[in-house]
Amino acid sequence: xxxxxxxxxxxxxxxxxxxxxxxxxxxxxxxxxxxxxxxxxxxxxxxxxxxxxxxxxxxxxxxxxxxxxxxxxxxxxxxxxxxxxxxxxxxxxxxxxxxxxxxxxxxxxxxxxxxxxxxxxxxxxxxxxxxxxxxxxxxxxxxxxxxxxxxxxxxxxxxxxxxxxxxxxxxxxxxxxxxxxxxxxxxxxxxxxxxxxxxxxxxxxxxxxxxxxxxxxxxxxxxxxxxxxxxxxxxxxxxxxxxxxxxxxxxxxxxxxxxxxxxxxxxxxxxxxxxxxxxxxxxxxxxxxxxxxxxxxxxxxxxxxxxxxxxxxxxxxxxxxxxxxxxxxxxxxxxxxxxxxxxxxxxxxxxxxxxxxxxxxxxxxxxxxxxxxxxxxxxxxxxxxxxxxxxxxxxxxxxxxxxxxxxxxxxxxxxxxxxxxxxxxxxxxxxxxxxxxxx
Length: 439
Ligand code: SAH
Ligand code: SF4
Ligand code: F3S
Known about the structure:
The chain is of the alpha/beta class. It contains 13 helices and 19 strands. The protein has 3 domains: 3-125, Rossmann fold (3-Layer(aba) Sandwich); 138-374, pyruvate-formate lyase- activating enzyme, CATH 3.80.30; 380-434, CATH 2.40.50.
């Protein structure tokens, strides 16, 4: 009998790709995607443990799922991803109604685990040794998708002092370049025009596994017909090299937007975080990228209130923001994660003070975002259309090459790539009107 699965994904794009793999695996085991939770026979939470808040949200969801399970006999609950890897058995202690707990390296066994759960045999699968067995699983691609993420690596060896990722995702492993190219070709064959290459530190691609280096991989992908936009996340400022920077001059399909997480503008804090670069080195890379591609957009991640961060350190972060003028950023209050070096650091910043710093940083970012968006008004830009606008179904929504969300009034052109005149800027997105086609 056909059953259905609802997957709720937390955390980063790595989890999003893994969820698409889970869906693809389960569809071959007779589980279709359910449109709503209420419809589903099986729920999978693909979890994140990057900050404490993420943990709390998942345990609260598990409380709700206890009642969901009771409403219809035979329903099953599975928990996978980074929190599952980190908390393991504790999950079932806190939520005994969970049938399957599986780690970040155990996705390929999912159909078998579900079969066991159907026979009321609970499963706990957390081994890291199975490594990348699920890499051969082609992620489910929604009908009509024009953009897709492609995982090129897994795990991380950096052990930044605050970060739990190396603990829950394991060591860095690069996927064979041939497999990546094959996947991108297949996506192009299905109408995908934009690929986003994913890794925790894409710039170290290939180094450990004797694969071709990252810039070489980019060059190969740029040769694949039908792919008109190439993006990558995440770049590590220490490892982003000159060869990759120069590719922005050469490869027109490489999008003019780089996400380059700074974390802090203070050299003292960067050293304590173990990031491996200084503020000056970071700014030099931004300048080199701007020289390679004038008008390039930048986004970043910031952590405020890292142990030992003083008001002066924090002001240095604001100063770098003033210098670079990021188009957007994600910013977080430091969260102490079990097993990381920062969790042992004594000089904790007062949570109230950290909250105030976060607000100050976000206010400054909002001003810079507005400034960067306004600078686009009056320009004609190329938009890759992803669908109808959520606000107004008469309008279309897509992204510019600089990764800005754009809602626009369509003209008579067809196809996903449109030329749009920017007529206005909001707090997070642009509005525009399609230019009449010259044909
Ligand atoms: N590999 C990526 C980041 C992955 S985590 C990189 O190196 O940039 C995404 C972001 O979450 C990080 O950039 C950082 O800003 C934030 N983050 C990670 N651990 C955190 C913690 N313990 N507390 C607060 N923010 C954290
Ligand atoms: Fe975490 Fe640092 Fe690895 Fe990014 S590079 S995933 S922040 S340890
Ligand atoms: Fe979260 Fe795991 Fe990603 S901890 S941010 S889902 S790698």
